[in-house]
């Protein structure tokens, strides 16, 4: 055996090591420029009661979860049972940001699958979503008592995301005083 | 029911693939001809079951069975039928099924068309291909099952990604996968060579047509992808150095090197272990591309939905396939020896140089693609490597290749003197220089040193290819009809090299002389680029099956003569609310006029982006000429010889001399 012939093998071993490390990293975990900043302002009607306006100040004072959803979004259905589960624990209010949806369809969706939301903000034009930097539905934000965005999750929440990412953040924020 | 049948068919295909891998391998060890002969029926059966699964998924799309999660995610009742058929490969799971289908098709083709191979080599090749298939089928069943149910079924699906709703999508991925997967054949032949310890003329003759076929599919796929990006992304660009584009380009570069080094190994019996290594590398890069696209380690416009389990699986699979083949290589390759020496001024020397440039270019792309990952892994921050790096590194590596191409036809094997070369192609140097310098002046009334240099090289590649065909025609004069025919391989080589010249011409002129203008126009107003005037005739609304479009109408004038009316669209796809541009293009060989509709501004004005892109068509024309060249080369009658191959395997010095 000539040692030179081993060079490709060594090279590939290094490459595999690198890729293995790469797998544990998430290139999409680009810190949202909004993290730590106050949630962008909006004044929008409630989904269930069109005459009631919800604004960002309604989200202050408590640790809050804001979940961007739509009745046309299939991935929202995947995470839906987890949100129901989280709502059942009564840890914090969960607001829905109903994004680019039809009111009737959104309400039908909630009555069919269950409503985990304290209330849903009806953002038919997607204006609030734009300000919040939503780039796909579903997305989930966690706000602290001062209405600052402290965590953002892109895509459907899995059971493991809920357990290992969202709940620790929620618990930590609930533990914060003032 | 149909989805379950599809799922079951995949499991059966897996069983057959396991059989196709193990039984012939054991048969080879025990020298049992019956076991060896199992490979072929197993390959046939596997193809049939994968095809059934594929039809099952297509059927689920056609009947809008949204209880299948994959269909619900990627289709919609309003989606036109043709896109429902194409949506099968519109996302991860289904494209994996297409990949496996292609692999089983290639396997079947090898099993069918290589009956004249020695049975041990054929069994070994089919066994290796079976093993690759096992890996991908396991991957599909365990991490990416396209038949998974979503219960209760939603009433409406999410729709196919609107970016993919384009004719380009219908053919681009299948062609690309045919290329990627096709390199598995060269890979399997390389493994067979390592196992048998023989790399001889017969082996290269079996390997060459398969490699060229895979290469031409990959070339076609990449060219189509570039054309699709140009039309659909609305940026007027044709190549973006995106990680996923690079993932397809690296195997192409190495595959191109492989085609050329196979020629040397066939004719001169040298570079044996190098050729085998290239065959392993080309396929390894295809696998690496799969990993990069589907694991989510790199950010790209093309990336599929990511799932860490998938990344881990492909990485382990990659490690097993590439690691074991390179271990085998390290063990067996040193026994491939050849005594022939290689001089620089010989065809083998020329092709060695070609290989060096191609492989270094591939390495440069590799480095640029993975560098962000390295930086991230070393915790040095997050960076992205962009076109400036690739253009700076890549262009100086490609231009020498275009120069070398000019000698392809006239450089003889073994040894040439500089004077002979000068005699054969020297007269073309002034021709290429004159054409290269004059062409931009005549076509575009402009020139510069950089453009001239690139165009001289482009015309050098084109004129030397044309001259070679004439040389063959001339030498055929007065001979019998039989010997007057130019071999298809010669046509193929010259056509592909001519295509390279056309490509370089297109890239140079488009890069140097494209004009881009952002304008704000009220209906009835015009904007100019050079001689051309773009008159904006307003925007109206239109509704199609699954989107609403704002359609801008632009009338084009050249020196006040009306030449065309072009539609440029901005589409809002209803299911997901996403907005896509569908740029308006007025295309001619020597220039494109390209109009992308922007936003509605106050008072009825619109923002528009206008491009004038000279000779951009030549980029794709060059690609298609290369594909055509590959097709002709595969059709060469050398590869159609059935019975003679066995005799040839004892290297026949006379034919070698004659063909040189």
Roughly how much helix do the residues of chain A carry, as a percent range?
A: 25-40%
Structural class of chain B: alpha+beta
- Distance between the ends of chain B: 61 Å
Quaternary: heterodimer
Strand content of chain A: 15-25%
Q: Largest chain interface and its two residue counts?
A: A-B, 28 and 45 residues
The separation of the N and C termini of chain A measures 70 Å
What is the typical, i.e. mean, pLDDT of chain A?
84
Instruction: Name the strands of the widest sheet of chain B in spatial order.
Output: 2-3-4-5-6
Mean pLDDT metric of chain B: 87
Give the biggest sheet of chain A.
5 strands, mixed
Radius of gyration of chain A: 20 Å
* Count of runs of 4 or more consecutive helical residues of chain B: 22
The profile of the biggest β sheet of chain B is: 5 strands, antiparallel
Major sheet: arrangement of strands of chain A: 5-4-3-6-7
- Give the overall form of chain B: globular
Structural class of chain A: alpha/beta
Please state the overall shape of chain A, judged from the principal axes of the Cα atoms: elongated
Strand and helix order of chain A:
HEEEHEHEHEEH
Q: What is the total tally of β strands of chain A?
A: 7
Tell me roughly what share of residues is in helical segments of chain B.
55-70%
Summarize the structure.
With 178 residues, chain A is an alpha/beta fold. Chain A is built from 5 helices and 7 strands. In chain B, strand 2 and strand 3 (532-543) form a beta hairpin.
Explained architecture:
By secondary structure, chain A is α/β, with parallel strands linked by helices. Helices cover 37% and strands 19% of the residues of chain A. Chain A contains five helices and seven strands. Chain A has helices at 7-24, 74-88, 103-113, 127-131, 159-175, and strands spanning 43-45, 53-55, 64-69, 94-99, 119-123, 139-143, 149-154. In chain A, strands 5-4-3-6-7 form a five-stranded mixed beta sheet. Chain A has a two-stranded antiparallel ribbon with strand order 1-2. Chain A is elongated, with a radius of gyration of 20 Å. The N and C termini of chain A lie far apart (70 Å). The termini of chain B are far apart. Chain B is an alpha+beta fold. The longest helix of chain B has 32 residues, at 201-232. In chain B, 63% of the residues lie in helices and 12% in strands. In chain B, 51% of the residues are buried. In chain B, a hairpin with a 3-residue loop joins strand 3 and strand 4. In chain B, helix 1 packs antiparallel against helix 3 (39-62) and helix 3 packs antiparallel against helix 6 (92-113). Chain B has helices at residues 2-30, 33-36, 39-62, 69-74, 81-86, 92-113, 119-143, 167-196, 201-232, 243-268, 272-295, 308-332, 347-377, 387-405, 418-425, 428-444, 449-476, 481-484, 488-513, 617-634, 644-648, 653-659, and strands spanning 515-521, 526-529, 532-543, 547-558, 561-573, 579-582, 584-588, 591-600, 606-614.
